[in-house]
Design brief:
Structural class: alpha/beta
Domain SIS: 45-188
Largest sheet: 5 strands, parallel
Shape: elongated
Keywords: CBS domain, Isomerase, Repeat
Distance between the termini: 46 Å
Pfam family, one: CBS
CATH superfamily of the largest domain: Glucose-6-phosphate isomerase like protein, domain 1
Domain CBS: 213-270
Strand order of the largest sheet: 2-1-3-4-5
Protein name: KpsF/GutQ family sugar-phosphate isomerase
Number of helices: 14
Order of helices and strands: HHEHEHEHEHEHHHHEHEEHHEHEE
CATH topology of the largest domain: Rossmann fold
CATH class of the largest domain: Alpha Beta
């Protein structure tokens, strides 16, 4: 390769790296600047959302619409009924989606989006509060709003300063602040999040022991007097790598595959009570699988038993059930 051409490519790459770095810096600076002066209106908007029992309707057009869809989705994940409604569709029948006891969150950088006019008029006529996120506190949208979150004029980071970039990034951050602030003020818990987000890795991390533990007929239960030959058949049938030695509903001990191997030569002479390990590791039914896996790992065992308040065994958890996909 030509040396001079290679030097030019290296120089171009360095210039590109600096250009890309400046994009992140400028957008971060916009968020930081707003955080220094826009908190009161964001807090007022959060309080308004919490005070309303009905649905949150998020609306916008173009890039604001795309951001609005994500904001509505985040609110739903946190337990608040939220719907995105395209502003243009509101004039063609979708105004019926607006809950009389709800609140509208309208996004528009200019604050002069014509498609919002019918929706704003409807909200005014039916006394439905509107929260706006816009650049101008003097815009038509701002004046029609109950709470206006105005972030001021921004310099878009696109090469021509025209494509929505900095403004949409900031609007998305404001939406996150509204959603997380709502969850904090409304007391949303991890259980609430799991209820609305059972799929994916996030949902998996919040699953509890009681959601996956083996129960009922799946439990490998044997009596203290059980012969080891019969014990091995139970263990093979239940396929959990262990058996629980129980009496009157109480677990006296646990027998693992390793215990069987160590006493293989004595299978015909011993009973379950003779080789069981007393005080087996227990896990709480209400803890997450992530925490259960940590407890089993620290105890250096692969199986934990789950007991009720009367110390009766109600389930068995194998560490493989705690592994997240």
């Amino acid at each position: 390769m030509n040396v001079e051409k290679l030097k030019l490519q290296v120089a171009d790459r360095a210039a590109m790296r600096e250009s890309v770095r400046s994009i992140f810096v400028k957008e971060a600076e916009a968020i930081e600047a707003f955080a220094r002066g826009g908190l009161d209106t964001v807090c007022a908007a959060i309080e308004l959302i919490v005070s309303r029992d009905g649905s949150l309707i998020v609306t916008g057009v173009g890039k604001s619409g795309h951001i609005g869809r994500k904001i509505a989705s985040t609110f739903r994940s946190l337990g608040r009924h939220a719907v995105f409604m395209h502003a243009a569709e509101s004039s063609h029948g979708d105004l019926g989606l607006i809950d009389p006891n709800g609140v509208v969150l309208a996004l528009s950088n200019s604050g002069e989006t014509a498609e919002l006019a019918d929706m704003l008029a409807y909200c005014r006529a039916h006394e439905i509060p509107v929260i706006s996120v816009t650049s101008s506190a003097e815009s038509t949208l701002a004046e029609a709003s109950t709470v206006c979150i105005a972030y001021g004029e921004l310099s878009e980071v696109c090469i021509n300063g025209l494509a929505p970039t900095t403004s949409t990034t900031l609007t998305l951050a404001i939406g996150d602040a509204l959603a997380v602030g709502f969850s904090d003020l409304a007391g949303v818990t991890a259980d609430d999040f799991r209820r609305y987000h059972p799929g994916g890795k996030l949902g998996q991390r919040l699953r509890k022991v009681e959601d996956v533990m083996h129960t009922g007929d799946a439990l490998p239960l044997v009596s203290p007097e059980a012969k080891l030959v019969d014990l091995t058949l139970i263990m093979a049938e239940k396929a959990l790598g262990c058996a629980l030695v129980t009496e009157n509903g109480k677990t006296l001990g646990i027998i693992t595959d390793g215990d069987i191997r160590r006493h293989a030569a004595e299978l015909h002479d011993l009973k379950a009570i003779d080789i069981m390990s007393v005080n087996p590791v227990t896990v709480d039914r209400d803890i997450t699988l992530e925490k259960a896996a940590l407890e089993l790992s620290q105890a250096k065992v692969s199986v934990g038993i789950v007991q009720d308040s009367l110390m009766r065994t109600i389930g068995v958890l194998h560490i493989h059930q705690c592994v997240l996909d």
